[in-house]
Amino acid sequence: MKLRPFNINDAPTILSWCKDKHAFRLWSADRYKNYPAQPLDMIAQYEGDNLFPMTMVDGEEIVGHILLRYPSAGKSIIRFGFIIVDDTKRGMGYGRRLLQLAIDHACNQMGVKTITLGVFADNPSALKCYQSVGFKITGEDSYMIDGEEWKGYEMKYVNYIQKVIECVKDSVLPIHEQFYRKCNGDFDRIFTEEYNTESYTGNVLESGKVYELSYLKCTCPMVQQGLIKNPEHCECSRQSILYILSQLEPDSQFDVRIENTILKGSDRCTFRIIRHKGILFKEKMMETERIILRPWRDSDAEVLYKWASDPDVGPRAGWAPHQSVEESLEIIRTVFNDALHTWAIELKETGEAIGAMGYGPSCECDLPAREGEPLIGYWVAKPYWNKGICTEALRLMLDHIRETTDIKSLISGHFVDNSASGRVMEKCGFVPTGETCIDANQYQGENRPIRVLRLELR
């Protein structure tokens, strides 16, 4: 993927990604007078010497758009705006890639060290995407949009990369390169065997994918000397970890997120590391003759509510029935699309989402999982029970896991009063461990035993 200058022929495609007026205002705020906007309206927004609209393309396909502009005559800061990706590709890493390309262009081609942007509070998926590449909230504001007051956040990114390279290239990086060679590139081994010293500890949250790194004391010399006390400086440490990882495995994509820091009052600095092995953005289409596994979309909210409000569906899987379309939309944005590996099960015949399939860290449940062993979960709408769809979708996901990850085993479970779910797992190769447990984190889970199953992949 790459960025190129925007041209008017891109406009119809970009504008088509805003499916309703609310989505349009989340993208454009009050910059456009009328909805829907026309291509010439878009061109009018970009008249001026200090405006640099860019389009992200994947081969010849238009997949993203962003505006870079100098907000002041000094040209020391770049401001991002009009950030959007193809709505059919959300949740697949395109937003992060767009931002990474734009940050690289702003810092390395335009020579700035600071980038700012604004985001509405009613757009949590965008907020988390910006945070995942290093933007920090610096303030709050409110705006009048179509006669309503909308809350927003100001965000800032500071480029520390040159400082990072000078600091770690010849000292810290060689140590981690030695760890990488010693463990033959096995990140699970690196985090469990090598990242456990008096200074820092490692933890595997999801084998091959998600890790945690904690520093028991701040290692920054400037903090140790008392020269820096601002927690914003911890972004330099985040970028240091990201730089080291990118040098160890340049063909993979990494997200590094700050969980807590000593400068914010914690007893340690903790970073969560998410590894996307190989090329994240070219994932194989997961489909059979009947179904497709694809990311959830905002436009799925109404059909999700239709199925998820059924009291016979959610409680069987451990979650409460949805109470409104608005709740379903919020779950799409903050649960499904915040997860790394959660897909909608789309029935090709109707084009509707009829269920969910996914896997993720087991550390948030009470099942007897091995260290770093992921947990699978799924559900399908009641009209589609006993049609083999859940089994078909689970097999599809398991094939995807085998082909794209190093995961060694998976754990799952079902309430003993939901034997149909257990049959799906066993048809796909899961074997009962002989254990049962109670997981009070599940909806109505306090007194319902869960039968535990495991699948050995390697």
Give descriptors for this structure.
458 residues; alpha+beta; Aminopeptidase; 3 domains; seven-stranded mixed β-sheet; 15 helices
Furnish the topology, listing elements before pairings.
Layout: E1 2-5, H1 11-16, H2 21-28, H3 39-45, E2 51-58, E3 61-69, E4 77-85, H4 94-109, E5 114-120, H5 124-132, E6 136-145, E7 148-158, H6 161-168, H7 172-182, H8 187-194, E8 200-206, E9 210-215, H9 221-224, H10 234-248, E10 253-260, E11 269-276, E12 286-287, E13 291-294, H11 301-308, H12 314-317, H13 325-336, E14 342-347, E15 352-361, E16 374-380, H14 389-404, E17 409-415, H15 419-427, E18 431-437, E19 450-456
Parallel strand pairs: 4-5
Antiparallel strand pairs: 1-2, 2-3, 3-4, 5-7, 6-7, 8-9, 9-11, 10-11, 12-13, 13-14, 14-15, 15-16, 17-19, 18-19
Helix pairs in contact: 6-10, 11-13
Distance between the termini: 33 Å
Q: Quickly name the level 1 CATH class of the largest domain.
A: Alpha Beta
According to CATH, the homologous superfamily of the largest domain is: Gcn5-related N-acetyltransferase (GNAT)
Task: Indicate the proportion of strand residues.
Answer: 25-35%
Number of domains: 3
Summarize the main sheet. 7 strands, mixed
Rg calc: 23 Å
DSSP summary: helix tally: 15
Helix content: 25-40%
**Mean of residue pLDDT values:** 88
The number of distinct β-strands equals: 19
**Morphology call:** globular
Which fold name is given in CATH as the topology of the largest domain? Aminopeptidase
Low-confidence regions: 278-284
The main sheet orders its strands as 1-2-3-4-5-7-6
